[in-house]
Amino acid sequence: MNPYEQAYAAACNDPESFWAEQAAQLIWYRTPTAILQRDAQGHQRWFANGQLNTCYLAVDAHVEQGRGAQTAIIYDSPVTGVQQKISYAELQEQVARCAGMLRELGVGQGDRVIIYMPMIPQALTAMLACARLGVIHSVVFGGFSAAELAVRIDDAKPKLLVTASCGIEVGRVLPYKPLVDKALSLAKTPPQQVVLVARAQCEADLQVGRDHDWDSLMQAAPSVAPVAVAATDPLYILYTSGTTGKPKGVVRDNGGHAVALNFSMSAVFDAQPGEVFWAASDIGWVVGHSYIVYAPLLRGCTTLLYEGKPVNTPDAGAFWRVIGEHRVKVFFTAPTAFRAIRREDPDLKLAAAHDLSCLKAVYVAGERLDPSTYQWLHSFLPCPVVDHWWQTETGWPIVANPLGLTAYPTRSGSATLPVPGFQLEVLDDQGQPCATEQAGNIVIKLPLPPGTLLTLWQDDARYVDSYLSTFPGYYLSGDGGYRDQDGYVFVMGRIDDVINVAGHRLSSGALEEVLGTHPAVAECAVVGLDDALKGEMPVGFVVLKQGAAIDPQTLQAELVQSVREAVGAVASLRRVHVLKRLPKTRSGKILRKTIRALALTPQVPIPATIEDATVLDELRELFEREGCYSQPPRERG
Ligand code: COA
Ligand code: AMP
User: Are 244 and 222 in contact (CB under 8 A)?
Assistant: First the structure.
């Protein structure tokens, strides 16, 4: 057996010994002896009687072990022209003070803090300072609207919110404070205090008694040492889209998370202490939590914090510039970013000026790496290109090419093999194992490895219902796919109503709620249709109320605007079509999958449960008019 096969077998056959061995690589205040506790419903607790501190492991431990002078964070911000290097010793000083600031503001263990910030070093400091105190952070992506922020505030009930005066998008300053003020006024349980990082690009008004200036408080704050927390205490809540309008608050623990991320850095990413690791994502997503903040720092790498885009900041050579300039060893982004670069610079003229020989491997996730983009990357990159599949819920890769254990030959369209700890199976809808190459539900046999979600915040029933009840004994991933004769896993996309736009998860239900509030709309459906750049784009289909007099253009403009306001620009809803009727089952369920299929080809299997198949003719005509059938179908590999 090769090292991958050995590790995979060990993690399957004796998970407790395998993960106890991984846990022994970290420093614990109290070494765990109870490795895995499980209950009949499928809940699990890793390292229940262990005590540790994630911030200590990510920061202080490196200083104590002589890495104080090493750069912990490289901040590269083409949108402001700022570059900054922060050593582990400096980070420790900042984080200890920030923890002191939080404590002085009355925030303590188990309290929640919402972090609504752009990609600046203070965002990482705030996250780590929460971890230092055992405070549970919940980072909300800066592209979400005030209304979405308010929903998360009401769910997490934070004591404090940390923000900045603005974010910066291509050529635009986006003031955050008006959004925060609006969110606080919409929320039923707003935090009593706000701390704001004032950026040079934008001033913000501070409300006396509630709002504080970050710099002033930090100057006066005492340094605070890490506190010991239980391995099972929550480190963070991260909201992600489910199929309904209410986001799911994924709860991550401290102990399992640290152990799993540390393991992933060696087994999957083959990243060594001291190497520069760059995940070009955003701290608001799980990729940012795991691979901008926690994993690289736990491993003693230098993490790169990039405040910019793949294109337009200033051009499609930006990624190559950053890789070459900072000697990035491991690079991680979403396929959509490479498609954006390829669209602008197909012949890679802008890459030629940069020395990419530092790269050991490039990883992509967030959506499937389509074969065409894979071939393009493979043709010029001096290193392996690794597609790997995972989710907010798992927190780290489920399927990957385990370069740190055994490098496997890549198969275009496949994310390669299950990572040790994830016992992956493909089941049909009746729960029977699928044959080789037969597509079905991708599930993971329990127990899940450490680092995966504990539950959903304040909604354990939804956790059990969403993930554990469809196939007892298995975690339901929500993705469909198959395995080939050698066990390579091909993930083909969501089997539920989650839409994946540029690697971001959106719920069709949340967007439908917004369209449904328009006075002219009787009913609606939002479906993710294939898009050459973003993978999928949400498209709305609405039926008007009897007698509604509004022209389709005006209606579309109003609905697009209301989605921007209610969800955020990141939803990218640009098209809305008016239909006479929506295709539905006899019990009234909208057939979104059929709409999606019809956009690809006019001949689709007619669902047996459809109420009236003639409804599909109107959709066929629409997609014909839109030119959907004259484009080559996207490669499915
Ligand atoms: N704060 C505020 N607004 C934001 C934002 C943020 N952090 N991020 C995005 N937005 C806004 C954009 O300004 C844009 O607004 P607009 O409609 O007014 O122009 C809208 O949300 C859509 O943004 P985006 O999805 O970035 O699309 P784009 O067309 O501007 O750029 C890509 C396309 C492919 C370059 C971009 O989607 C990208 O960089 N993707 C990488 C994805 C990624 O990192 N995913 C994380 C998972 S690994
Ligand atoms: P998120 O929770 O936002 O990270 O989104 C997770 C979802 O993105 C998964 O359930 C998949 O649908 C999709 N996804 C992520 N990575 C991949 C990948 N490598 N291949 C296919 N789909 C992916």
Answer: no
pLDDT for 243 beyond 90: no
CA distance 592 to 241: 17
Rounded alpha-carbon distances, angstroms, from residue 528 to 151, 391, 491, 579:
23, 18, 17, 17
Say which range, 124-133, 320-329, 375-384, has the weakest mean pLDDT. Answer: 375-384
Final residue of a structural domain among 232, 253, 274: 274
Q: How far is the CA of 525 from the centre of ligand 2 (A)?
A: 22
Cα 137 to averaged position of ligand 2 atoms, centre (Å) = 23
Say if 454 falls within a structural domain. Answer: no
pTM of the predicted protein model: 0.95
The last residue of one of the domains, among 274, 299, 330, is 274
> Residue 518 maps to which CATH number?
3.30.300.30
Instruction: Give the per-residue SS3 of 472-531.
Output: CCEEEEEEEEEECCCCCEEEEEECCCEEEECCEEEEHHHHHHHHHCCCCEEEEEEEEEEE
**Can you give the CATH number for the domain in which 243 is found?**
3.40.50.12780
Distance (Å) from CA 411 to ligand 2 centroid: 18
Q: Would 162 be classed as within a structural domain? A: yes
* 450 Rama class: left (phi>0) / alpha (psi -120 to 50) / beta: beta
Output the ligand 2 site: residues, CB below 6 A.
240, 286, 365-368, 387-389, 391-392, 415, 478-479, 491, 494, 500, 505
pLDDT tens-digit profile of 487-538? 999 999 899 889 999 999 999 999 999 999 999 999 999 999 999 999 999 9
509 is a domain residue = yes
Q: How confident is the model at residue 633 (pLDDT cuts 50, 70, 90)?
A: low
Can you tell me the distance from the alpha carbon of 393 to that of 571, in angstroms, rounded to the nearest whole number? 21
* Interval between CA 335 and ligand 2 midpoint (Å): 11
How many angstroms separate the first and last alpha carbons of the chain?
A: 30
The count of structural domains within the chain is 2
In a domain, 293, yes or no: no
**Ligand 1 atom nearest to CA at 572:** 22
Mean pLDDT of the chain: 96
Q: Which structural domain range is residue 597 located in? A: 502-635
